[in-house]
## 1
Amino acid sequence: MNEFAKHMIKTGRITKIVEEAPNIKTFELSIAMHAEPGQFVMAFLPQVGERPFALTQAGKKIAITVKKRGPFTEKLFSLKEGSFLGIRGPYGKGFSLQNVGKACLVAAGIGIAALIRLAEELAKEGASVTLIFACKSANEIIFKERLEKVASLHIATEDGSAGFKGDCIELLEKVLKKQSYDKLYCCGPEAMMVSVLKLCEKYAIDAEFAVERYMKCAVGLCGHCCLDEWLVCTDGPVFSKEQLLASKEFGRIYYSKSGKRMRFGGD
Ligand SMILES: Cc1cc2nc3c(=O)[nH]c(=O)nc-3n(C[C@H](O)[C@H](O)[C@H](O)COP(=O)(O)OP(=O)(O)OC[C@H]3O[C@@H](n4cnc5c(N)ncnc54)[C@H](O)[C@@H]3O)c2cc1C
């Protein structure tokens, strides 16, 4: 794809909708696109807006897997098979997969959407993949069958309804005490990624993190998704452990929908 074509909104039909969990749906679209694991697309609905999503399927058809949150995702959830959706991209910097023999992937909640294709790609490259997947409850565990084909899956639920009872940080530390890894990859809420970053420092593991910030243009123009001197849309969304350790804003400061500088957890 040339550099101009990827910025044009492609209109595709929704060919399949899968209800993965009570609040999570996968939308398969009649749009062909190649993208690295970790890259994202902007989905467009006229009169509603545009929002960033990871691709949970790429190639002849693409798919996005979406958690219902606010106006855009609510409208998306009301669409039926056969409806149209606009897509531009792929955007951003993906994960690096080179020279990884043993990989540990850590996902919390819908963060799994950014990691599922990475798990599959790493397994295809011959890496051994351990995946720690944490959810509030068993009914939020998605892609179980798909993940078990390529990874040794460790589930944690807050209420203990499946797997380990507790959060992914406790489970990750248990795993890291027993095993060493060449690389760790992580996606989830920023507070959780801060704790994973600390464990990566403690256990001296190379790591990459897919950061999700409020994003508007996706092409480095509006400056809304800044993280220190970086823009998450063009310099990320994947950042290295070293970058995030050097960051003054990661886990501390973010910018609201209207651009107001906010502190995580309030002032
Ligand atoms: C690179 C990237 C990849 C993402 N991939 C996925 C994915 O695969 N699946 C998924 O369900 N969600 C993903 N998200 C988050 C998704 O973009 C938001 O949940 C969505 O935009 C919510 O829009 P809304 O109008 O429904 O809710 P809103 O009311 O706009 O927001 C609800 C919550 O989502 C956050 N949010 C809203 N819009 C954005 C935005 N444009 N960028 C970042 N955070 C936002 C807000 O901080 C708020 O807490 C991703 C975000 C980024 C930045």
## 2
Amino acid sequence: MGGWGSGPQSSKPDTSQAKRVDIRYMRKHGLLLPGSMGSLRWTRGGEPNGYIWYTMGLDATSLTLDYKVRQHGEDWQSMSYTVSLESIPCRYGGKRQYFRCPNFYCSRRCEVLYSYGVYFVCQQCCGYLYPSQKGDRLNKLLEAKRKIGARIFEDWNGSDGWRKTKGMHWRTFEREYRRLQIREEAWSKTFCERAKALRVEY
Ligand SMILES: [Zn+2]
């Protein structure tokens, strides 16, 4: 998975390190509890490679990110903003929290926020902001993902969905959902490899 998953708790290799905030990792490690606070740290080649601070709202509907960031050796900037969280019923019962993209014009529901410039934004926003060409690998992967998503979800929002298309067999849905996830991971890996060249430090 990369990202936060390769913190000290994990022995996974971190060669494709992404600067990203993954709500699945936070959920798994119990970091989404009301009022919870601490740091989220990246590593690269086993060495520390930046961190940010997080604070969960007392009603667990928001997450505040605080960090210092600099691009291309420019001056450090202090950043602080709140990411809304949305709790929705998950596919197999229970409820699950998602981020709302902090880009005001987007606000899409998502599970991963990627470092882009000095902010963390959703995959779709990276797609708009990153100057990749049409026919480029990133766009192709995103397009393939969109096609599958729009077919298998009733409420596909461009990057995620949670209601299975009516009349679709669960077996078909599961298979297609796995295909979607494979493209998601491939996109993330490619994007992060490119993003490294932007040399954003935390
Ligand atoms: Zn977005």
## 3
Amino acid sequence: MQLIKFTKKGIYCPQGEFYLDPWFPVDYAVISHGHADHARWGMKHYLCQHDSKAILQHRIGADIKIESLGYNDPININGVNVSFYPAGHVIGSAQIRLEHKGFVVVFSGDYKTQPDFISTPFESVKCNTFITESTFGLPIYHWKSEKELQNELQQWVINNQANNRTSVFLGYSLGKAQRLMSLLEGADHIYVHRAIHNLNEAISNSGIQLPETTLLTNDFDKKALQNKIIIMPPGLLGSRLLKRVPNAATAICSGWMQIRGNKRWQAVDAGFTVSDHADWNGLISAVKDSEAEQVYVTHGSQAIFAKYLNEIGIKADELKTEYGEEVMAKAEQEYEKVVAQ
Ligand SMILES: [Zn+2]
Ligand SMILES: [Zn+2]
């Protein structure tokens, strides 16, 4: 039974004649979420979850041909039943479920099993074949609860204020920025960089309510910013804009902070482990709950995670794709640079 084929352009469904998050232009693309490594330019037709539609139009182009569905609201494409289930990763993120003649494949896209305050919580879906990401597929990764994170971040802001410092959080414009806004809501007034502001506007215009923020203009009033909160993309670290913020205390927010390997991050004052991906236990529970007979492990620690799954009796293979943190980081920064100019 082959409902999916792994091709050079991406994961293909021959019966339905469509691709899942393809990395080359195709006629029909079913998209899991708006991150740059999953939603790319050049598709003749896009299908995504409702909440991703405005994000894709904002990033790829207002004139793209795009259709959207709610969660668990199936559509039939050439005899294949296609539906979206919450992935808990970013606003609008979805696992893509395909069903044909009783055989079910679920493509996870990117997912996080722990609930946060902003994205629709992850729902596990039973299937025959599960394609899972593995960004943080090592046992060292274990996330705190959202409440603990909220306390940690807000306490940092309070400490900065006691020292007359402005709190600057660095995070990607899609996902991390909205997550930080929800974690910091109520702590003090939040200013956001233009790349984040524009995306937020597109999201809000589509009817999704976001915490209140103000655009950080290039000619910002230094006095007004004193002791406040700013969120900007990580590419802005070392920028002139950031250098002009008075008494800035900087923090990077990423799952990678658990290992603190990246040199670039040594230039910041604080690091918080805020991840939009599942941790080790989250990945294992998602795989087990899917009850899949065959698992394919993609972007991240696929070799180690696939090996572990086989050891506990779950048939798993590695799958090479063009998704992943590095591809995404590069492409996301391009989006943010274009806006920043
Ligand atoms: Zn993603
Ligand atoms: Zn990804």
